[in-house]
Design brief:
alpha/beta; Spore Coat Polysaccharide Biosynthesis Protein SpsA, Chain A; ten-stranded mixed sheet; 8 helices; 10 strands
Length: 255
């Protein structure tokens, strides 16, 4: 079972090395690693090219945002399973892809899976700022603002082939739209891995400033209307984020 792991990068020289090593260090060997770069000018490509690994494929050309880059990666992917890893994120440990593979092997009818993630400081990725405990999947929760953590969302390639890729109308919240499309509209099967899978750096595209948070909320609202979800759920969705800051901060162990 081949995994296609896709990283979109844009002037990511300060973080891309840790991301690459997180992928190449995975104990599961059947992977291809697609790095879709937005013509970085800060030395990102110099770092990427230091890794002479046949599993890596680099595409560097101008894109129209992260979702456009991810769509390029999906189109190029030849694997059975597609996973994403942001250029400033890392896997929680070296066995994450192995865990994904076990889920899909042991559950051949399952189309996707997901797990938990921690938001960490950009300066110290062992310092936890937020903890996103997903919980078991419940279809009804999607109508109440609940969401699968997209960085942990791993999907069979055939799902994208059949139901489409990221909607480029949305610049910040297209991950939310595609999760509602797959799990809410089409009711595709998913599996919850009750473990932390991803270390996600704070300060990403959707939460770097109050303006970005406002823009994301506007997009979330529009997406909810498309799928007939009550706007009240937007309040619940944001309250869920606030709860993630309490009771789970601290430092990660080396294990």
């Amino acid at each position: 079972m081949l995994f296609s792991i896709i990283t979109a990068s844009s002037n990511s020289k300060d973080t891309i090395r840790a991301t690459i090593e997180s992928v190449l260090g995975q104990s599961y060997g059947e992977i291809e690693y697609l790095i879709i770069d937005n013509c970085s000018t800060d030395g990102t490509l110099d770092i990427v090219k230091q890794y002479q690994d046949k599993r890596i494929r680099i595409v560097s050309e101008k894109d129209n945002g992260i979702y456009h880059a991810l769509n390029k990666g999906i189109k190029l992917a030849s694997g059975d399973i597609v996973a994403f890893l942001n250029s400033d994120d890392t896997y929680y440990n070296n066995n994450i892809i192995k865990k994904f593979a076990e889920v899909f092997t042991n559950n051949p009818g399952t189309e996707s899976c997901y797990g938990d993630l921690v938001y960490v400081s950009r300066k110290d990725n062992n310092k936890v700022i937020r903890f996103w405990k997903s919980g078991e999947f419940d279809y009804s929760l999607l109508a109440c603002g609940w969401m699968v953590p997209h960085p942990t969302f791993c999907v069979r390639k055939r799902v994208y082939d059949k139901y489409g890729v990221f909607n480029l109308e949305f610049k910040i919240a297209s991950d939310y739209e595609i999760i509602l499309r797959f799990l809410y509209k089409y009711k595709l099967s998913t599996y919850y891995i009750n473990e932390t899978l991803i270390k996600m750096s704070m300060g990403g595209n959707s939460n770097r400033s109050l303006w970005h948070i406002f823009r994301k909320s506007c997009e979330d609202y529009k997406i909810m209307r498309i799928y007939g979800i009550s706007p009240v759920s937007l309040i619940r969705k944001n309250l869920n984020k606030v709860r993630q800051f309490y009771g789970n901060s601290g430092r990660l162990s080396n294990g």
